[in-house]
Amino acid sequence: MRFQFLRKNNELLKVVVIGGGTGLSMLLRGLKEYKLDLSAIVTVADDGGSSGRLRDEMDMIPPGDIRNVLIALADTEPLLEKLLQHRFNRGKNLSGHSIGNLLLAALQEITGDFKSGIREMSRVLAVRGQVIPVAEELIQLVAKMKDGRIIRGESSIPKANGTIQRVFLEPKDVAPTPEALQALQKADVIIVGPGSLYTSVLPVLMVQGITEAIRNSTASKVYICNVMTQPGETDRYTAYDHVKAIYEHVGYQLFDTIICHSGKVDEEVSKQYDEQGAAPVAVHKEKLERLGLKVIAKDLVKHQTYLRHDAKKVSQLILQVISRKPIEPD
């Protein structure tokens, strides 16, 4: 049974989730188990792998993040999900491409535009929500490093072996999709993250008009911070550093609440992350509170070989925030 959450007029509660990558997909897998009016506003700045090749060869929005979100929200058999995520490992032209990406490319050609292709794939997969690209034109993510270098391309930035000072979009005046602005205007709850700070979250927030729509909304605004730092992107960052970086790019007082992981990390798991140059993200509650944020710090991960947010735990916590129920500290 899927529990439903209603507005006072008996419409389903409107929840908008922003970002990209595995973090966004994880969260949506949990939230889709509840009866909510879900919308996902997804980054289109990817330029690596299969998505990058299709972007270059077909002059199309990179489909990878969109594909992952569609699959996360789909009501499908496990085999179909496995098929859509399958990557060819042979063939000169097919190797590295995922079937889901190729289907989105084909649907764009059949329907005439990328958004129509997303709608048709959503219908076929019985997607529980609306999947919205943040923009319809091609975007390049650019980073200025602290040593003065300029790195172009979302996939190149984490490999630059430096410290990011600032990221920006080219073109800088890229317009958001009308559907993204409409979803934000109607939202009861807006959730940003989890996801790569500079390469998944900020490429959505920096699209012209998106931050303004969030700031002008009467919705509850929640930021879900990553569990671990990311080498080449957020080395040694605390939760406060994540929020501060967002605010320095798009302006302050964007969020009401931040959700952080505060549980212990198994020693063996910690060793594996140490080898990769990653570490748990420290909370620093007092500094976050000085930014005007309500801080919710709980054990929110699956304790396996690698740490990942537990979709069920995070979704239940968000629903407690939505319902304004008191949250007991760990």
TrEMBL record:
The keyword Cytoplasm applies. Gene3D superfamilies: CofD-like domains. GO terms for biological process: regulation of cell shape. One of its GO terms (molecular function) is LPPG:FO 2-phospho-L-lactate transferase activity. GO terms for cellular component: cytoplasm. Keywords: Cytoplasm. It holds the Pfam family CofD. It is found in: Cytoplasm. Belongs to the gluconeogenesis factor family. PANTHER family: GLUCONEOGENESIS FACTOR-RELATED, UNCHARACTERIZED PROTEIN YVCK-RELATED. NCBIfam families: CofD_related. HAMAP family: Gluconeogen_factor. Required for morphogenesis under gluconeogenic growth conditions. This is Putative gluconeogenesis factor.
